[in-house]
Fold:
Amino acid sequence: MKMHIKIWKYIQQYKYTVFLFLVFTLIFTIIFSLYSLETEAILYACILCLIVLSVIVSVHFYYFCKRHNEREHILNNISIMTESLPEPKTLAESDYLEIIEKLREINNLNARIYRNERSESIDYYTTWVHQIKTPISAMSMILQGEDTDEHRELSSELFRIEQYVEMILCYFRLDSNSSDFVFKQYNLDKIIRNTIRKFAPQFIRKRIKLQYEPTNITVLTDEKWLSFIIEQILSNAVKYTETGKITITVQDKILQIQDTGIGIAAEDLPRIFEKNFTGYNGRANKKSTGLGLYLSKKAADKLSHKISVESTIGKGSVFYVDLHSDKLEIE
Structure:
């Protein structure tokens, strides 16, 4: 806080004290005048009072600023100094300290309740996801028994259901405080191939060509979450590409996934990684949940990867996943 603001705040806080001092000074001046005391005596007394007042106010203002700086320091570091509040100097400060302590207790209680409820929710949805996978797998096997257009269409829709189910679990895991990441060196080609294999029926059903240039590089990452990011990008590529091809390349540890789909509107590009943002394509086709890319960006941030996109309407999109992880170390 600037000095002139501190001075103004000081005057505001102690304005009644200043007012009383001026009143008392006026009273003494009037009384001295009534007794016909010499002007020099009155001025001398006033000057002495002003000198004493200046010294007292200067010292008091110094400690006023000092206490303010201490409180400002605590405020700037409140997350790590919640137990280091200064001792109260006045009854008002003591009252405020009691209020803060009471609010802290209420906040801690609410935080514990929230963590317990969230933990129960995660446990419930984790169990639900694992249980729902059983009938999904059973239906998938039944549909594979006969190769017809109807069965292939149903298999595609069932695949989307399975993706949405996995997305629910990922949504809760990414928002939880528990660590679900296993960082080590992984073969990137293996991760990409496994993901491509998972989407193979979708490529065949829509007759979309896949072009992939194998790579032998290894990256420091988490296999499960990097697979999730690639799956979400491929899912969007397949969803919004009717004809043409999807190309996957890796250059200098930057994974590129390019499609020849409908593209993304320029005004939507800055917001596609926002939660629940579906954009023009999602609203027009009613196929988007607005969660896939949001979760991908969140997972990429936790992996210390960077994800970005370039797109042109009618020509397609290119997603980039920068797999450089200089800040990560294997323990």
